[in-house]
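To: structure subgroup
Subject: Chain for Friday's discussion

All,

I'm putting the inputs and outputs inline so they're searchable in the archive.
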Amino acid sequence: MGLTNWRYFRVFLVALLLFAFGLRFHLLGSQSFWNDEGNSARLSERSVALIIEGTASDIHPPLYYLLLHGWRQLAGDTEFGLRAFSAFAGVLLVAGVAAFSKVMRPNDRWRGGMVWVAVLLTAVNPALIYYSQETRMYALLGLFAVLSGWVLWQWRAATARARWLWAAAYVLLAAAGLYTHYFFPAVLAAHNLIVLAWLLTCARSVGWATAVRRLALPWVGMMLVTLLLYAPWLPIFAQQFGVDDLGERGSLPVFLLTAVSWMTFGATIAAETVQWAVLIVVMLLFIGLWLGRRWVWGTAVCLFVPLLFMYAAGTVQPEYLKFLLVAVPFQCVLLATAVTTARQRSIRIILPILLMVALTLGAFSSLRNLYTNPAYARADYRSIAARILADDYPGAGIILNAPNQWEVFTYYYPDDTAVYPLPEGRSRPTPEAVDAALTAITAQHDRLYAVFWGEAQRDPERLIERWLDAHAFKARDEWVGDVRFVVYAVSPEPANKMDTAVQIPFGDAITLVGYTLNKTDRRPGDIVLVTLFWQTAVSLDQRYKVFLHLIGPDGQLAAQRDSEPGGGLNLTTIWPPGETIIDNHGLLLPANLPPGQYTLLLGLYDIADPTARLPVLTPTGETDAFPLAEITVR
């Protein structure tokens, strides 16, 4: 009786699959699409021909998008509907682990318990759950890795007549994997090593001639047919493979520990907080290899070959760890082996306890972050688009830096006629190209919304933001997840023109030599445009922030804007002594601001302590803020 009794095992297996289903569909549509998901959503809405054409210049092959194109006809194009395809793939992956674990250990009395534990570990694995809730191909990639491994073992054990059917199934799965992701060759490399080992074992027992006839020739034929099916895409694969400079690989042991941490606890928990748990997992992996070395080596190959493949290819950065979804299921199987094959009673008791402690403190904490912690939420383009639509500002333009935000943003924003993806093209921008593009854009709009993401790759010198900070007036700058949402006002007058000359000392070294206000008669929702002209007598060691405070008739703060000079890019520590610094600021008036007379105050404070304001010497005496102007709100 117990878990190894197959009558009860089926009940536990169904319960675990339902559990896996619940974890993968829980809050499935609650978060916004992020960049890559938006790409999937918009690409899959095209025709089949355009999907193939689009993916030929993309970094992924077309199968996932083609399948998603058909899926959206059934499930719709909402976040829940599109993500459900990956969620179902994730549930099938859990079932695939059950099938793989069962076929790997035929006629073994420990098989039922090992399958149950492997399915449990797969069901709750944070990395698998995360990508089962994303409109990308990674859950499907993991599913093809598991199914192709299961079919490979079935092909090896089948009778002569049935082997043709299993061979055909393997070829189709292998080709599907290749058409799903460019990392799938790592799976095929593992399978080739496994078949080579089978060939050597077979040759020792029946001789080389028989072994070649039974294994080598059929396998070579299967690989050739797979290659033939993939041949139309091979030139594109060759063009995409190895184009980018991926940087230093670093230490192999460090990479392996990082990878094991990610494969066990996912990306929604800091690796340094679960170091001891990762060491327990590593220990269990070695125990699994030691205890099941006669039959578990194939699983180990499916686990470690993709890891070494990644390291050899140089794709060791965190953003590439998701490729390891092809290896995560086999880690779960190997961990289950360590738990269920120990022969000594004391070991059988200790190992499950160690594993459950590691999972409790790591995996479930990671899942809690995935579901509830805003710090690990996907970029919220849905709320950014909703805020712009709610402003309903006539004639506003929207700048997306970089261009690969266009798909996800236009998924939520219905009118793309005033949406500008910059920089143009695939190369990094030049100052001349930025000036030409933004001059044309600002000539058409008096308000701009900018969404900054990925500048380090496409615009590392931040040329676009520097141009906007010099020629427009930044009124809002805030993080929405890992995306920055910025609001600019554009003045018809040059942003470097001084209207009012003054000599107002701020502290011992800084002087306000002049300023310009575009208008002092404004409406709620408008932006007050302020250009400040600063000088410093000496080089400054301290960073200061500029604050603009709008004080109402009742003496209360009605609006404020705090920012380092130059939109945060022209820090006081880099001001050359004696040189005039032009510093643009925008103050966004609340939409519900009551009419009346308001006072606009200007000051500077230590970036580390907002209460440490620089003293301001005005004609009427010393204060901590200079009354810049009276603003009338109508």
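Points worth raising on Friday:
The first strand starts at residue 397 and ends at 401.
Residues 345-372 form the longest helix (28 residues).

D.
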